Amino acid sequence: MAPTRHPKPGQGRTTYVHWDGQTLGNWVNQLENADLLINLTGKSVNCRYTERNKKEIFDSRTNATTVLGDAIRSLAHPPRLWVNAASATIYRHAEDRPMDEFTGETGTGFSVQVCKKWEQTFNDITLPHTRKIILRIAITLGHQGGVMAPYLNLMKFGLGGYQGNGRQMFSWVHITDVCRMIAWLYEQPQLSGTFNCSAPNPVPNKTFMQMLRKAGGYYIGLPAPAWMLAIGAGMIGTETELLLKSRWVLPARITQAGFTFQYPYLQPAFESILQQLPRKAYHLF
Question: Mean pLDDT across the chain, nearest whole number?
């Protein structure tokens, strides 16, 4: 069962039910006897941080989490596991050392405030019969949507160089490993709490762009200094933080617990994604 704010016709064995992310409704009954609940709800942060957008970013995450907690409490047979999405951007800008669940330091600013309130809302919910897990998800790479399309478009026009000074760390995870991690955690009933969902080998932004150009068959990519990014971000309606913050995150808890990544290194991750895309997606001709 897949509750969604944008319902579409059923495909295969999947049943779609509508919810608004704010109120209880008939959709609650679909959670009865569920094995696993995964909440990924939240307005995209790829926007300008106006007061209106800030409120929507906060509310879309906290309201949905609160309502799901209310829904679970109303059930006779609630889901065995609830996995709630969070973000690896909760950690501070880090160029000096990596951040993990044990020694990582949270940062400051709007994005971090969102992460903290989102997690606090989830942690404040007590559910005696449902195990709870927070996944602090890093920038996710896949062939459908996400960050890959903008990066590939830059490469087409020779703009696939590093952003800012290129030293900021880029923590990432392949979409396949996000799904594998959730499935693996479901099979580990002794585990709960917070886990970093991030590949174990983050790289500097400059290296990230070099490896992407190599995978895509490009040898030249012009860099984009911070002042240029600020102008561009204003033109396309986003924030430079998404590119310039140094996210140096390691998945300490999940690896210590025994999980292994299918894509621990960036080059094979890029290659697997580009193999699933038509050539025209990252080449002009």
Answer: 92
HEC sequence for the chain: CEEECCCCCCCCCCCEEECCCCCCCHHHHHHCCCCEEEECCCCCCCCCCCHHHHHHHHHHHHHHHHHHHHHHHCCCCCCCEEEEEEEHHHECCCCCCCECCCCCCECCCHHHHHHHHHHHHHHCCCCCCCEEEEEEECEEECCCCCCHHHHHHHHHCCCCCCECCCCCEECEEEHHHHHHHHHHHHCCCCCCEEEEECCCCCEEHHHHHHHHHHHHCCCCCCCECHHHHHHHHHHHCCCCHHHHCCCCECCHHHHHCCCCCCCCCHHHHHHHHHHCCCHHHCCCC
* Stretch 203-228: mean pLDDT: 94
pTM here is 0.92
Task: State in Å, rounded, how far the first CA of the chain is from the last one.
Answer: 41
**Whether residue 4 has pLDDT greater than 80:** no
In sequence order, what are the beta bridge partners of 103?
none
